[in-house]
Structures are given as C-alpha cells and as structure tokens.
Design brief:
single chain; 50 residues; alpha+beta; two-stranded parallel sheet; 46% helix
Length: 50
C-alpha cells in the first residue's frame, strides 16, 4: 500500500499522472451532476464546484 501511495504522489508531483475530469458542474446543477453520474457515460471524475 505504501508503494502505491508513493507512486501516485510522485506521479502527481511530477505532472506525469493527472486525473481525468469528465465534466464539471456548479453546485446549483447538482441534480444534473447526479444524473450524469448515474448514466455511466463518464470516463473520469465528475467535479462539483461550490
């Protein structure tokens, strides 16, 4: 587990490992964000900004 954590943290710090963001929603659109999540159409992370 420690090796995996080090791999991820090192990759993020070096910029070689970056998260994939499928879509970003405003908090006011939380219902649309939830529907998008339930649709399983996303490839990556869904971000909700507050």
């Amino acid at each position: 587990m420690a090796a995996a954590k080090a791999f991820i943290l090192d990759g993020l710090a070096a910029g070689t490992l970056r998260p994939v963001i499928a879509k970003t929603f405003e908090f006011d659109d939380i219902v649309a964000a939830h529907r998008f999540l339930e649709s399983n159409e996303q490839l990556g992370t869904i971000v909700v900004t507050v």
